[in-house]
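Dear support,

We are seeing what looks like truncated structure output for some complexes. This example has two components. We would appreciate it if you could run it in full and send us the complete token output so we can diff it against ours.
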Amino acid sequence: MARRGTRPQGDEFNTLPVAVDAMGGDRAPAEIVAGARRVAEETDILVALVGPPGEMGDIGDLPTFPASEVIGMDDDPGQGVRRKKDSSLVRAAEAVRDGRAMATVSAGNTGAAMAAALLRMGRLPSVIRPAIATPIPNPGAPWPTVLLDSGANAECTPAMLVQFAQMGAAFAGKRYGIEKPRVALLSIGEEKSKGTPLVKETYALLADGAGGAGVDFVGNVEGRDFFEGIADVFVTDGFTGNVALKTLEGAMRFLIGALTGILSLPELAGAADALYPHLLPLAANLDPETTGGAMLLGVDGVSVISHGSSSSVAMVNAITVAHDLAVAGLVDAVAASVTGVTTPD
Amino acid sequence: MARRGTRPQGDEFNTLPVAVDAMGGDRAPAEIVAGARRVAEETDILVALVGPPGEMGDIGDLPTFPASEVIGMDDDPGQGVRRKKDSSLVRAAEAVRDGRAMATVSAGNTGAAMAAALLRMGRLPSVIRPAIATPIPNPGAPWPTVLLDSGANAECTPAMLVQFAQMGAAFAGKRYGIEKPRVALLSIGEEKSKGTPLVKETYALLADGAGGAGVDFVGNVEGRDFFEGIADVFVTDGFTGNVALKTLEGAMRFLIGALTGILSLPELAGAADALYPHLLPLAANLDPETTGGAMLLGVDGVSVISHGSSSSVAMVNAITVAHDLAVAGLVDAVAASVTGVTTPD
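Here is the complete output from our reference environment:
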């Protein structure tokens, strides 16, 4: 089993393919395969499809890692990974583990993608729990705001949140080239006395320079701050993070839907024609498909988890991000960022 | 001390004024007093202003409850209420307690308004903790979605959440005339296995008809469901609820700001003129100022807590809602809804 350090290095690593789960997502395999083919045709990135031969549609001349089973969107993640050992998600993670792929991308069952990465790639040393980092598009800032954990761990400890801060900063650094990412804690008020015991204890640990968390902690932020550009990384537990992420998605979908409805009124055809050239760039900047998907941080490999509704465009972005971060050494950076955390409890 | 049942009843109660904290909010006292005067001039609702005589501006011939102190927006809520016994917030709550007012309205320090209501009006029998219920405007549904707790209790137990479900349903019934409000639990997936232990235990209690919660529990909802109209009441702890509420506010403010920016481009003046008549009703429907503010449920009196940025329009709505709910018997309905909750722990 090729662990970090024993895997292919340098040029050898850089010429490994990105293993793409052809069967994951609401629009699989067609949109997944279309995105993978576009990357292979238009860039130097190598792509391998993972799935049942003959069931992936027209895959052109893309190489494959065969996998006879599929973990469905509604399958129990843990059971799915344990029982379907020949599934596309499991085989993709094994390809990274064994040094045959540089990264995985899946738009399938998020929990199963996490479980496959955790069980097959393994956790990085010292990491208590991996977390999902989701870039929140922010058209007013030079880069998205990274939210983590956006759903991997419903229950968290202060030590876990400190590590999320460290891993999130490492990710923001590699992903957006931010030299010293500003890390904030999601709470219900700016004051350090606000929030749950979890938030207050984490605040104390992050604010304690001597604790050696090694991140640029800027204090608490609130839900209304996602578009304010006051921090690059928002740290929270996976329950709160998931609720916030889906609340944002719901609000955006609702407002954009309402606006589209208004602009489709016959009497507004002229206004719509004038407006769309200005609205489309805004909508594109807000579209989660442009961010390249969420990233599972803390496992021994690059694992990109795309939205279940991902189109071929989303897959192009996700595969590109997976490749770029694998080559940039994301896993080593995350591993180096994480310290054992000493907590009072 | 006039407790529920010993206070003025019937016609006598219905002719009490609504006590309005003239000094609470970012735009106090001018906007507060303007709203109170409009209600007094344009409706049959009686209004009394609470604040320092001579410091409330032009109050016309409105009656007052004098109070020499003001609890600021940044004051510690508990300390503020304990130390400033002659503050407008404390005196307003006392006016309800003593049967001199039917309800209070404040746009001031939310925590202090809660503390004043809790300490002066008192908790209703059997209520473990009061909660803040916030109506989330939903233009696609016949009424807003009620979110509670939206910030009173960062830490909650399953028994508290069951009571929030009961109180929220009683509020939605009185406020919107919903015969059998559909109550949902905010989580990170529809399945009852999803979420924190708090959510899973609450799910079990609410789903157990024999438990006698007496609400129409429709299961879990997610953050993306606020505009879907699938439940009338969303129940959660005050930390998650506050993050979700502020995330919604932030997303709305961002998108409306971006749209306003686009529509102010000189070359889009014509399109903007055509569009605004359609956009303004949508914006009005989404405006929290139209919902009449949040309501503290579980205390022995009607206490409306308006947004800190409340204008005179928001105050008109808040005072009207406070009056209508006091007359409709909200407090009795909430008291009747709450059962002692037997939990395994």
